[in-house]
Amino acid sequence: MERHRTIINWCTYDPLLELVAIPNPRPNAVENHPANLVGPVLSDIPGTKDDAWRSTIVKITPSAAAPTDYSTFYQTNANGYEYVQHLQFGAGPLNISSNRDVRSPYGKLKALPNPATEFVLFEWPLQMAEGWLELINAYGQKMHTARISGLQYRFERNVLTPGVYYYRIMNAGNTTWSGKIVLN
Q: Same domain, yes or no, for 12 and 86?
């Protein structure tokens, strides 16, 4: 399984700007080797073997000529970072529950209809001066980003293919609601 990680500085984050892609280290040629399943430490401090707060130094691929110091990926003014972490679980299906409306400390969000064919209307109880909505597909790719305000946002499906999409609605730099929608 792959877990897509996004690390963001909410004070300066702009969802319309790119994130710095960080390669997941895979130093061992054996697919499920434990060394391949750990994500890297990213820091502006060059790595050493004995300091947990310094950047990881490891081969990105088994055939790499030399290890990579992950401090080379650090950028002082980065919009954010994203990387894919590889996870190994025992056999069995993953069960993700359905979210038609989601509770948060900020109140109840409605995302209707769900499943949807043409549009989804997101409604929230807070007046939002400015926020963002992101739709992410099952592969962790951002498929739609929109600036939102007020008490609702109507998402028009347009060219998105049928499937499960995960949403995040952020207000004032915090993830306020998240859940999933199904497009038929």
A: yes
Q: Which domain holds residue 83?
A: 1-94
Q: SS3 sequence, the chain?
A: CEEEEEEECCCCCCCCCCCEEECCCCCCCCCCCHHHCCCCCCCCCCCCCCCCCCCCEECCCCCCCCCEEHHHHCCCCCCEEEEEEECCCCCCCCCCCCCCEEEECCEEEEEECCCECCEEEEEEEEEEEEEEEEEECCCCCEEEEEEEEEEEEEEECCCCCCEEEEEEEEECCEEEEEEEEEEC
Q: What is the pLDDT of residues 59-115, one digit of tens each?
A: 888 888 988 888 888 888 888 888 776 655 544 333 333 444 445 556 788 999 999
**Domain end (from 42, 60, 94):** 94
Quote the pTM value. 0.47
**How many domains would you assign to the chain?**
2
